[in-house]
Amino acid sequence: MDRQRVRSSNVRSIGYDATSSTLEVEFNSGGLYQYSGVPETVYAALMRASSKGNYLNNHIKDRYHCQHVR
Prior knowledge:
alpha+beta
């Protein structure tokens, strides 16, 4: 999945696959996580958010199934 680099103190890059509704988040620490069942509207709002980390914590974590990729 292609990811786009973002300006964030915690998040390095974000990718989204609309076909599978999978959100992929790479953290500055090197961790890579995939969230399944994420609507495209949530992904778009994350990309518009001024704080990617806050949006991720408040609207995605603990709401969508998460898999630690690396």
